[in-house]
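Budget justification note: compute hours in this period were largely spent on complex prediction jobs such as the one shown. Inputs:
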Amino acid sequence: MTPFNLTQFYADWATILPECFLLLWACVITGAAVLGRTDESKSGTFAIWTIIGTLATAVWVAVTQDGAAFGGTFVFDRLAVVFKEVILAGVILTAAASVGTVSRLRAHRGEYYGMILFSAVGMMLMVSATELLTLYIALELSTVTLFVLAAYHKTNRKSAEAGLKYVILGGISSAILLYGVAILYGLTGTTELARISQGIQRQFMASGSFPPGLALALLLILAGFGFKLALAPFHMWAPDVYEGAPTPITAFLSVASKAAALAAFLRVFFVGGQPAQLIWIQAIAALAALAMIVGNATAIVQTNIKRMLAYSSVAQIGYMLVGAVALDPWGATSISYYAMAYLFANMGAFVCVIAFAERTGSEEISDFSGLSRRSPILAGFFALFLLSLAGVPPTAGFLAKYYVFAAAIQKGYLWLVLVGVATSVVALYYYATVIMKMYFPAEQTEGGFPVARTLTIVLAVSALGVLLLGILPGPVVDWIKAAAQSFVPPT
Amino acid sequence: MNALPVPLGNYIILSGILFSLGVIGVLTARNAIVILMSIELMLNAANLLLVVFARVHGDLGGQVMVFFVLTVAAAEAAVGLAILVAVFRLKGSVDVDRLNILKG
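Corresponding output:
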């Protein structure tokens, strides 16, 4: 038992300050909404200022505090900084893109933003957790609030159905993850990732083989993460939930929640599971290949734009995991860069869908025909984001794919890269089909429409992100690389 | 290493059986409430493992974890049942085979 130490106490709480700040205001916004003391436009603005405040606090903590708190169960290292910025960027864009959707709700407008903020707290804790219990709680905090958000249009059949499917599959996935955690705890007697790694290594040295059950534990945890990341073959919930949930929430799910799960995945497998890489690395390569093939092949036949983007994001996760087989700092860098490029492109694409559906009430791909005449700005943005998702230069998506493929080739995974390149061509086909429909329609459709002001801002920010990351990647890559080197143990 | 009244293997087998029953329930049940109950069974299988291993390792961490898991499971069940009620009001049924608007 260590005696109470005021300096340590202060340092611990200072490290977790951004989460505390966000949590406090999430409670205030939700509480005010429940008591009926606010209207929805105010809580939206309030939520956005809260996130800006959290960003500022996070920057302050990054500058003044260093590393581990609460006995090493919570770290604010460079990786956490990178992913926290990504998540907060995702949250702020989601909140701004939600304005129209929320104004059409009949009740519970303020709680909507409260739920988004609670979910963001969970995601931020998740990227800092270096201990499996903390990780599990953070993951559940972010997921349970997302259940609520997916079913937010509770009188709409699609939304309610999406919510129920998400609850069931989310519950199963967290139970599977927890079972893996329990076995891992049994094998090593600890839930701290660094000590798990040492424990596995010690047992390997002593007996020359991995302890029995380790493979099972790691595969169960991998499956649990597979659900959260919507990685094939654990992706079956994603298209249904993406289609049924309110579109801003779909964007949030596909961007921020995946970024958080990805950061946690990097910590668990690159740090905790690192000594046992022989067991899991082939499994990840196989899952990545499967996700790229299944996601892209299924996306071609979709007629609903949200479903198409859902299957495309299954494939995108496959591309990100191509970088994971490298298991070195460069691999982690390529994954983080991909996550950032994907954030702006996918968020932008979904915001285009929001802007289109708000005016036309349709989410069918065929209705995008002739959009370049009806709203040239929207068509231009949408084309840019789709090209980035497809990986066409000079967008960020191109460099992102290049980095993950380069990382995998260095370690000799040529077959995986060939699968990736082949499926990218397929992906280009269905993204290009939408663009062709917008610019070269079979018949002219009438009726121009403007895009709401907040949505235009969100689109412009996302487009700026896609282009800047694609044209001037240097500073960002250096920043992420320093983060990756600080947390990946030398091999 | 603390002595257990029953050999460790038996606990692990029991937990494995509980978890398998949960998985079978999730895969075969058609009623959403039964599926939610099966998920609870899977979580409790993990809880059993955690408690047993906490005793074996002489470490309180595993037992503390169980409290958190129980709390999280309660929160998840509350949200799950609330959404279930919303679905029941719309469809008059909680049969998962009838959740078929979204597909493709």
